[in-house]
Amino acid sequence: MSERHVGKRVREMRKVRQLSVRQLAERVTISVSLLEKIESGSRNPAPGLVTQLARALNVGPDRLTGQPYVNGAETEEQVQAVIPELRRVLLTYDNPDDLVTPARPLADLVAEMDHVAAMRQAGRYVPMGPLLPGLLTELTHIALTSSGKQQRQAYWWLARGYRAANSLAHKLGYHDLSLTAVERVHWAADRSGDPLMQVTAAYLKAGAMVRMGTYASARRVLEGLIDEVERLSPERSLTDPHLAVQGAVLLKLAILEARDGHLERAQERLADARGCAGYLRGDSTHYEMSFGATNVRIHEVAALIDTGDTEQALARLREWGVEQDREEWELPAGIVAERASHHHIDVAAARLAEGDRAGAHRDLLEARRLSPNHVRFHPTVRSTAATLVRLDRSQDDSLAGFARWAGV
Question: Which of 161, 177, 189, 338 has the greatest CB tally within 10 Å of its CB?
Answer without folding.
Answer: 161
